[in-house]
Amino acid sequence: MPATPNNVPEPSRTDPALIRNFCIIAHIDHGKSTLADRMLQLTGVVEQRQMRAQYLDRMDIERERGITIKSQAVRLPWAPTHDKTDTHILNMIDTPGHVDFTYEVSRSLAACEGTILLVDAAQGIEAQTLANLYLAMENDLTIIPVLNKIDLPAAQPEKFAEELANLVGCDPDDVLKVSAKTGLGVEALLDKVVKEIPPPVGVKDAPARAMIFDSVYDSYRGVVTYVRVIDGQLNKRERIKMMSTGATHELLEIGTNSPEMLGADGLGVGEVGYLITGVKDVRQSKVGDTVTSQQKGATEALGGYKDPKPMVFSGLYPLDGSDYPELREALDKLQLNDAALVYEPETSAALGFGFRVGFLGLLHLDVIRERLEREFGLDLIATAPNVVYRVLMEDGTEHTVTNPSEFPEGKINEVYEPVVRATILAPSEFIGAIMELCQTRRGTLLGMDYLSEDRVEIRYTLPLAEIVFDFFDQLKSKTRGYASLDYEPTGEQASSLVKVDILLHGDKVDAFSAITHKDAAYAYGVRLVAKLRELIPRQAFEVPIQAAIGSRVIARETIRAIRKDVLAKCYGGDISRKRKLLEKQKEGKKRMKMVGSVEVPQEAFIAVLSSDDAAGSGKGKK
């Protein structure tokens, strides 16, 4: 008989031996959220009439794209089939599956003792699954390998069970086979969670220490902080302290998610729940931080805390300049829910006032832009994404460049760019195409391993700037959609980088500037001036479009002037009369060229700068 929310044991009185903390890690679209739905139904915490697909995904974008962006925690009561007497408490954390949110995943893993490694039985292991598996192994978690979607006609459970077993180091028969859609095998999986994942270990009488693994902003209650208690106990109405910032707050409410919020008197060792302090700023509840009691609190924080760093920068400008205050307000509100979002005001001669925004990756950029447009009704131009460069000048000064317009003039000694370690998983028939793509993107081969006779893992060092534009789309098209990509930052390297400026009628247009590798600069310049020639309408005078590195012009196109037919009224007569009229027109054009300015239509900026081609639809960014 499944338990109901009413018979969940009181949080503060749960015996740690009956608690199991686990999370689900998988690649995008391998069925994490569907499996979580079946677990909610089986344990009875959500009534059938309230059930909906992707129950734990609260955002519209998550539901439409079928991706998880925010981690969600839920408390499930479960009496195992082999022992119906004790109702165990299973704390499940549903994690994002995308490379941009790896830090959130790593903190969720640190809050657990075990993890379900979920793999699609029709697709097999993918790059992000592998990356998250290594994270789980680093945290010494108990790993339960599970094959999902075994009801699909294309499923190959035997083949992929062997692949999984080789990876985790178990017998292929130990790999559980489930169908999250139909519910087949989910009961056995919950039993295995109780049996194999160890209960939490902590010192009950020690000073309280709890780790924050997520925080969200609620417009009525302020910041809701999700924690896992490691040692001691946190009680309602006591004063707590955040160890990284030293800030103290009063605990107004404490409780668990079942899956809706359920208040309690406190949380003990091993329990997962939420805290509400009335604070309005999410940045005060940093993911990975340690919470302790203000009185007789812990002196040593839990390890693993670091600030998530933005990897990709893009300018966001309102199409209508008068929307600038609305954009500022919208970014402020989004930052309440997303502490990884950083931004600063920026002006562009071409686009007006806007913001330079830092993102964790391309999907993060795409999701934030869509939320701004949808939730706040804004029309935005997003400039092409670029990364952070470090420029050392010959005089010893150092510049940090997040925008091509910040690139310093003068004698440059060295330019450093961020590099990543990329892992690509694909069928072995595409090795040649993948290697060719990586070589053209200045990649260095690190190694290659065969996971099975027809699947290969290729590792490369690549500059981040080469990945953030259209690398993923190219990889997918060259491998007919079979390859998957994962990457992690590994530092920086010195490179021959130059700034390419676009000049219209001799004037630089800051919005079109770009930082590229010396070898790719000429091709970039030629491509952009050709594109602009098509997009900018003809003026009354001739307009040269030039691409230049410093003072050296590397490409040029000319927009011809519109000519009025001044000879229309001349019929017959002497040629000198026609020539006189043409000379007069030429003089007028010359004068106009001196005072005229080139009007660049908004469409041209959108077409050249828009990151739509680069960011893709987002869902597939694996």
Structure report:
This protein has 622 residues and is α+β, with helices and mostly antiparallel strands. The chain has five domains: 5-196, Rossmann fold (3-Layer(aba) Sandwich); 209-293, Elongation Factor Tu (Ef-tu), domain 3; 312-383, Alpha-Beta Plaits, CATH 3.30.70; 390-495, Alpha-Beta Plaits (2-Layer Sandwich); 498-609, Elongation factor 4, C-terminal domain (Alpha-Beta Plaits). Helices cover 26% and strands 31% of the residues. An eight-stranded antiparallel β-sheet has the order 11-10-16-7-8-15-12-13. The protein has a six-stranded mixed β-sheet with strand order 2-3-1-4-5-6, sandwiched between helices. Strand 30 (543-549) and strand 31 (552-559) form a beta hairpin. The longest helix has 21 residues, at 575-595. The radius of gyration is 29 Å and the shape is elongated.
State the CATH topology of the largest domain: Rossmann fold
**What is the radius of gyration?**
29 Å
Please list the strands of the largest sheet in the order they lie side by side.
11-10-16-7-8-15-12-13
The CATH homologous superfamily of the largest domain corresponds to P-loop containing nucleotide triphosphate hydrolases
Which consecutive residue ranges, at least 5 long each, have pLDDT under 50?
1-12, 611-622
Q: Bin the helical content.
A: 25-40%
* Secondary-structure-derived class: alpha+beta
Q: Mean pLDDT score, rounded?
A: 76
User: How far is it from the N-terminal to the C-terminal residue, by CA?
Assistant: 40 Å
Overall shape: it is: elongated
Membrane topology: Peripheral membrane protein
Family: Belongs to the TRAFAC class translation factor GTPase superfamily. Classic translation factor GTPase family. LepA subfamily.
Protein name: Elongation factor 4
Keywords: Cell membrane, Elongation factor, GTP-binding, Hydrolase, Membrane, Nucleotide-binding, Protein biosynthesis
